[in-house]
Amino acid sequence: MRLLLVEDDIALVGHLRRRLEQAGFVVDHADNGVDAQFLGSEQEYRIVVLDLGLPGRNGLEVLRHWRAAGNKVPVLILTARDGWKERVDGLRAGADDYLGKPFEPEELLARIEAVIRRHSGQADNTLEAGGLVLDRDRREVRLPNGDPVPLTATEFRILDALMRAPGRVLSKAQLGEQAFEDDEYDGNRLEVYIRRLRKKIGAERILTRRGLGYVFVGDRP
Ligand code: CA
């Protein structure tokens, strides 16, 4: 649930970052096009919110660079309210959606959720795997018998990353990237959270692959 916010208006960034973190995202920020292009090429993001008017390199160039390199990360561009040409250029360059400035943070959040749903083929804000249903709006996981189990924001992000890749080994670093702020992450902390999740959903659901990472068992055990 890591999100890249590319925006050079620092007041707007402060405001948006708080709201996005409340909504459960780990937020990286770039205030120029050069850093944005680098981060978007190196890190795995669930979505990028990309302002087009940026110092260093404009957002459209950054987006074209990613797409030319085969990077399919979902991108929502921020444009001038009356900038229809910008919007057309942005969509043609590979943006998934756009929002004109100024905007309400709630609309940005709703659009982010919609883009993420479309990108992962979900009909709503839930994710199913292995008989479990992860519900983003309620921040809970429902067990096969229907019992809801509440999750903390961090537990939710870890389980979300695991359930999106059933049967695949995710390294501690990959999970840590999706679940923690950079200065909060360490492997021991992740282990603590994995133990808590196992208590909540059943130890047999998350297997340890020693030296490699963790795997979510997608088939009903
Ligand atoms: Ca700008």
Please give a quick description of this structure:
The protein has 2 domains: 119 residues, Response regulator (Rossmann fold), CATH 3.40.50.2300; 91 residues, Arc Repressor Mutant, subunit A, CATH 1.10.10. 41% of the residues lie in helices and 23% in strands. It contains 8 helices and 12 strands.
Task: Give an account of the 3D structure.
- By secondary structure, this protein is α/β, with parallel strands linked by helices.
- It folds into two domains: 2-120, 3-Layer(aba) Sandwich (Rossmann fold), CATH 3.40.50.2300; 126-216, Arc Repressor Mutant, subunit A (Orthogonal Bundle).
- 41% of the residues lie in helices and 23% in strands.
- The chain has eight helices and twelve strands.
- The chain has helices spanning 10-22, 33-42, 59-68, 84-92, 105-119, 153-163, 172-179, 187-201, and strands at residues 2-6, 26-30, 47-51, 75-80, 97-101, 126-129, 132-135, 140-142, 148-150, 169-170, 206-209, 213-216.
- A five-stranded parallel sheet has the order 2-1-3-4-5, with helices on both faces. It has a four-stranded antiparallel sheet with strand order 6-7-8-9, covered by helices on one side.
- Strand 8 (140-142) and strand 9 (148-150) form a beta hairpin.
- Helix 6 crosses helix 8.
- The radius of gyration is 18 Å and the shape is elongated.
- Calcium ion binds at residues 8-9, 51, 53-54.
